């Protein structure tokens, strides 16, 4: 599903974000990526949907060879994975349903199919009654649900989340995590960078700890392992 | 691209106009001001051009035939003159009709010329117009070499001064039009750049969700085209109204008739094309650097 072999990433300003990372994530897994700020978690995540490019090493996601992937083909990769961000990244001028539909419009799906899928995923995240609202009129937790719905709409085999609960209060964070659990139970792989100690320690899953650009710990049913 | 996707891009482009209300208004205003300026200048430049052409076309040369030339020889000279490719017109004025014209000019003082009928001192002459008035000097030199030509006169000094003035006006007009076009291009694409900069996050999000570059570009392109075209509406209305009003009040200036109102239609076409084209190019160029993600 996701494989990295000796991946290095050096930014143009000379900062070294990753040094020789190798990892394999199988279908259906739920993986937390933890570690202090600036350890390389975000870079690790961004490489998977090709927002960043590795300086060295090879990465395969869903059969796509990331470092050889042509600029033109990037959209094809991104349509097969759902990405959820800390800041939600919703289009401010579009309603909830338009935001969710956008991910299907880009593959030129039929309006009928779009309508049907939008209803399905909005029901799954429990936002059917907010379909016509603008993101600005929703709470943080609701906005994150919209972005999860958008990530789900293409039926991706993997969802990548970069601190999805980072901007949310504890209670809302738990709602969102329950949603991710449910999605994972349906067979979707989930890779999630997080700073939420309580969540990691309660919902015990595989934990990858990144420090100084390297994976220093890889535990099945692991713990957070850092003091917040 | 599927047909319904084309429709989708069109709708999106239109909706973006209203979604970004104030930005749209600012862009359209910038286009309006620039095109109005350009339009006024185009009207002016065209009329100045026509006026100078008319001045030029009034330049003619008198060719005097030698005293005592036989009728047949004068006809031969006329044939030779008419065969010169540089000439636009050749008019023969016999000494008799020359005298009649002089009498007409003097009117009540024509009695001064009494008695000249018997011994007409005027020579036969030809009045020539060159196809390219600017070349009248060299045509004159050529005509001078023909047999039976006594003198060629085209008011050398005055004509040269006139031509110098005309080319100065024309050249500076051309420089101004080109400069104004560039200013329009810069102003319009800059305004669009500002509106797009405000939306760079949206472009980034679209890319992250898997949109291709062209999927993102099309609505922006249509939006830019509409902004450019809408920006041309007010200038076109003002110029049409203003120019026809001007024509109704001052139809002419120094024997020069201002270009007919049709000119406004041509200028309008130019304005709306420039607006739409620059709007399109401006938005496509401005989003390109935000697509690299």
UniProtKB/TrEMBL annotation, chain A:
Ranges for domain ABC transporter: 2-227
Topology class, membrane: Peripheral membrane protein
Location of the protein in the cell: Cell membrane
Example GO molecular function: ATP binding
GO biological process: cell division
Assigned GO CC terms: plasma membrane
Regions that span the bilayer: none
Record flagged with keyword Cell division: yes
Record-linked InterPro entries: AAA+_ATPase, ABC_transporter-like_ATP-bd, ABC_transporter-like_CS, ABC_transpr_LolD-like, Cell_div_FtsE, P-loop_NTPase
Keywords, comma-separated and alphabetical: ATP-binding, Cell cycle, Cell division, Cell membrane, Membrane, Nucleotide-binding, Transport
Function: Part of the ABC transporter FtsEX involved in cellular division.
NCBIfam families assigned to the protein according to its UniProt record, in alphabetical order: FtsE
Subunit relationships: Homodimer. Forms a membrane-associated complex with FtsX.
The family this protein is said to belong to: Belongs to the ABC transporter superfamily.
Name of the featured protein: Cell division ATP-binding protein FtsE
Organism of origin: Tumebacillus permanentifrigoris
Gene label: ftsE
UniProtKB/TrEMBL annotation, chain B:
Any one cellular-component term (Gene Ontology): plasma membrane
Key words of the record: Cell cycle, Cell division, Cell membrane, Membrane, Transmembrane, Transmembrane helix
Membrane topology category: Multi-pass membrane protein
Protein name: Cell division protein FtsX
GO BP terms in the entry: cell division
Occurrences of domain FtsX extracellular (ranges): 59-152
Coiled-coil features, chain-numbered ranges: none
Assigned protein family: Belongs to the ABC-4 integral membrane protein family. FtsX subfamily.
Transmembrane segments: 21-46, 174-197, 218-243, 263-287
Free-text function comment from the UniProt entry: Part of the ABC transporter FtsEX involved in asymmetric cellular division facilitating the initiation of sporulation.
Chief localisation class: membrane
InterPro entries on file: ABC3_permease_C, FtsX, FtsX_ECD, FtsX_firmicutes-type
ABC3 transporter permease C-terminal domain ranges (all copies): 175-292
Subcellular localization: Cell membrane
UniProt keyword Nucleotide-binding, yes or no: no
A Pfam family assignment: FtsX_ECD
Keyword Membrane recorded: yes
């Amino acid at each position: 599903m996701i494989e990295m072999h000796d991946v290095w990433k050096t930014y143009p300003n000379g900062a070294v974000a990753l040094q020789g990372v190798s990892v394999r994530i199988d279908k259906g897994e739920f993986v937390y990526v933890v570690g202090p700020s600036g350890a390389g978690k975000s870079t690790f995540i961004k490489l998977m949907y090709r927002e960043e490019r590795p300086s060295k090493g090879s990465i395969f996601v869903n059969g796509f060879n990331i470092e050889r992937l042509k600029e033109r083909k990037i959209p094809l990769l991104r349509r097969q994975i759902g990405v959820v961000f800390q800041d939600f990244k919703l289009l401010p001028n579009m309603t909830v349903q338009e935001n969710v539909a956008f991910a299907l419009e880009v593959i030129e799906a039929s309006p009928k199919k779009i309508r049907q899928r939008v209803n399905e995923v909005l029901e799954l995240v429990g936002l059917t009654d907010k379909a016509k609202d603008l993101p600005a009129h929703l709470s943080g937790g609701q906005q994150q649900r919209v972005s999860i719905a958008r990530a789900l709409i293409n039926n991706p085999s993997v969802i990548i989340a970069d601190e999805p609960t980072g901007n949310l209060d504890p209670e809302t964070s738990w709602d969102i995590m329950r949603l991710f659990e449910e999605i994972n139970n349906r067979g979707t792989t989930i890779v999630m960078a997080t700073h939420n100690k309580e969540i990691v320690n309660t919902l015990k899953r595989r934990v990858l700890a990144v420090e100084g650009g390297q994976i220093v710990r890889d535990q099945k049913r692991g713990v957070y392992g850092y003091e917040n | 691209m599927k047909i319904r996707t084309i429709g989708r891009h069109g709708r999106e482009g239109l909706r973006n106009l209203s979604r970004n209300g104030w930005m749209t208004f600012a862009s359209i205003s910038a286009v309006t001001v620039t095109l109005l300026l350009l339009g006024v200048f185009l009207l002016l430049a065209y009329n100045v051009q026509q006026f100078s052409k008319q001045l030029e076309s009034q330049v003619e040369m008198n060719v005097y035939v030698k005293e005592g030339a036989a009728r047949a020889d004068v006809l031969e000279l006329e044939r030779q003159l008419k065969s010169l490719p540089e000439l636009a017109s050749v008019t023969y004025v016999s000494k008799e009709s020359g005298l009649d014209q002089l009498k007409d000019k003097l009117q009540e003082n024509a009695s001064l010329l009494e008695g000249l009928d018997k011994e007409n001192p005027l020579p036969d002459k030809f009045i020539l117009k060159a196809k390219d008035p600017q070349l009248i000097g060299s045509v004159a030199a050529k005509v001078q070499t023909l047999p039976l030509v006594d003198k060629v006169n085209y008011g050398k000094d005055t004509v040269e001064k006139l031509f110098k003035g005309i080319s100065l006006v024309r050249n500076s007009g051309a420089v101004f039009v080109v400069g104004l076009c560039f200013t329009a291009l810069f102003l319009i694409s800059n305004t669009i750049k500002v509106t797009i900069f405000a939306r760079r996050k949206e472009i980034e999000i679209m890319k992250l969700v898997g949109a291709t570059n062209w999927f993102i570009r099309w609505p922006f392109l249509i939006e830019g085209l509409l902004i450019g075209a809408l920006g041309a509406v007010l200038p076109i209305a003002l110029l049409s109204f203003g120019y026809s009003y001007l024509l109704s009040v001052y139809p002419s200036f120094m024997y020069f008739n201002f270009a007919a109102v049709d000119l406004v239609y041509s200028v309008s076409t130019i304005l709306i094309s420039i607006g739409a084209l620059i709007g399109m190019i401006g938005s496509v160029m401005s989003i390109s650097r935000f697509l690299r993600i």
